[in-house]
């Protein structure tokens, strides 16, 4: 059980916090913070608290409302903010924010200041209301610096090669597992700063789009093309397909005239589709959101093969159409939706939320894919590739 003076200090701090948030500085004894007094079974706590409150009421620090005909306290309101913060040895919130933002700003080089100035505005707005920004409160400056520094490094990556979480963490953060702990907040920071349409991507998907992956893996593909690295050559026509590290591919050559290049979002569907693909077709597994390394190899294949048809088979959900758009934007040829109409599927796995439908309706997509997108919106149901009606 708290002592009377301790309980009063807590109550006074709560009144100061309310005033700093722009809320009227009043505290009812029925509120949780004063529950020990409101439901008091200890006469010493009750009388002691009432005595302290009475003293500070006389000094002009607080105003008190009591129950009629009783010394019992109904509510306390703050009358003198300046006197309260001196009594509590409390640094005013405005000063805390100013000090924290100065440390934050000076921790970054001048060329990053456009990023920092934008984030300062967001942080200040949140902290004034005593809310967190990127999971950080006004006293969490060092943590905020760490999150933003990681986000800026990712946004400014110029290397097409993927980097895994552990190596990224070891190079740019405190230890090799750190990105796992803060990836959600790093993703949120990127979304605050990026002009790309990425607000609906998960943290893992967003980081992958910048080439930061949980674990690097080969690009799986199948088709009559040759991949060259230095003096070595690999034939992707091998039965069942091959896996290749995209960063090592220096040149792509077609072994026959390629009519179609198909990308597939999910590995299980890729593996089922490959045995029945056309002879003049090249198929690639995107592994969800395509990374920069994947896009580099994808563009090399398109440029080498010059196919008549380029198509993508994704899930019928926001992610599937987002991937379709990403692939469409990275090459000069139109990438058409393939097997992405609801009537081609057995069972839906969920319905679109109102927010997801709103996202799909706002999505800017090539005119050649509007039909597939509109069918998904009208159906209002989501489908995974695995429920496709195979012939």
Q: Which terms summarize this structure?
A:
single chain, six-stranded mixed β-sheet, 391 residues, elongated, alpha/beta, three-stranded antiparallel β-sheet, 15% strand
Task: Report on this structure.
The protein is of the alpha/beta class. The protein has 15 helices and 16 strands. The protein has helices at 4-20, 35-38, 43-58, 81-88, 93-106, 113-128, 141-155, 165-172, 178-193, 203-209, 267-273, 292-305, 318-330, 354-362, 370-379, and strands spanning 26-28, 62-66, 73-78, 163-164, 212-213, 219-222, 225-229, 232-235, 242-244, 251-254, 260-264, 281-285, 309-313, 336-337, 350-351, 381-382. The strands form five sheets. Strands 9-6-12-11-13-14 form a six-stranded mixed sheet. It has a three-stranded antiparallel sheet with strand order 1-3-2. It has a three-stranded antiparallel sheet with strand order 8-7-10. Helix 1 packs across helix 3 (43-58) and helix 5 packs parallel to helix 7. The longest helix has 17 residues, at 4-20. The protein is elongated. The mean pLDDT is 93.
């Amino acid at each position: 059980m708290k002592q009377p003076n301790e309980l009063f200090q807590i109550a006074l701090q709560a009144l100061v916090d309310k005033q700093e948030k722009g809320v009227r500085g009043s505290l009812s004894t029925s509120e949780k913070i004063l529950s020990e007094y409101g439901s008091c079974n200890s006469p010493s706590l009750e009388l002691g608290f009432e005595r302290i409150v009475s003293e500070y009421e006389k000094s002009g620090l607080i105003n008190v409302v009591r129950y009629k005909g009783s010394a019992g306290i109904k509510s306390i309101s703050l009358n003198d903010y300046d006197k309260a913060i001196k009594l509590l040895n409390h640094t005013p919130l405005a000063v805390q924010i100013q000090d924290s933002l100065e440390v934050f700003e000076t921790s970054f080089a001048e060329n990053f200041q456009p990023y920092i100035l934008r984030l300062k505005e967001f942080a200040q707005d949140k902290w004034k209301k005593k809310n967190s920004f990127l999971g950080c409160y006004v006293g969490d400056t060092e943590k905020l610096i760490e999150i933003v520094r990681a986000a800026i490094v990712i946004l400014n990556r110029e290397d097409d090669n993927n980097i895994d979480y552990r190596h990224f963490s070891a190079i740019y953060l405190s230890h090799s597992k750190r990105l796992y702990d803060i990836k959600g907040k790093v993703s949120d920071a990127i979304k605050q700063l990026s002009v790309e349409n990425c607000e609906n991507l998960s943290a893992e998907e967003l980081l992958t789009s910048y080439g930061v992956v949980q674990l690097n893996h080969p690009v799986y593909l199948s088709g009559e093309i040759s991949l060259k690295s230095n003096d070595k050559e690999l034939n992707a026509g091998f039965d069942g397909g091959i896996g290749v590290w995209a960063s090592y591919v220096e040149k792509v050559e077609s072994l026959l005239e390629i009519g179609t290049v198909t990308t597939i979002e999910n590995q299980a569907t890729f593996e089922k589709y490959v045995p029945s693909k056309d002879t003049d077709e090249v198929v690639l597994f995107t592994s969800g959101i395509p990374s920069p390394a994947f896009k580099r190899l994808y563009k090399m294949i398109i440029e080498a093969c010059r196919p008549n048809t380029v198509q993508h088979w994704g899930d019928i959900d926001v992610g599937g159409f987002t991937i379709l758009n990403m692939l469409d934007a990275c090459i000069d040829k139109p990438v058409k939706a393939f097997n992405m109409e609801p009537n081609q599927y057995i069972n839906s796995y969920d319905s679109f939320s109102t927010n997801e439908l709103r996202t799909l309706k706002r999505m800017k997509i090539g005119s050649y894919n509007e039909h597939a997108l509109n069918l998904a919106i009208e159906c209002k149901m989501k489908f995974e590739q695995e429920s496709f009606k195979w012939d």
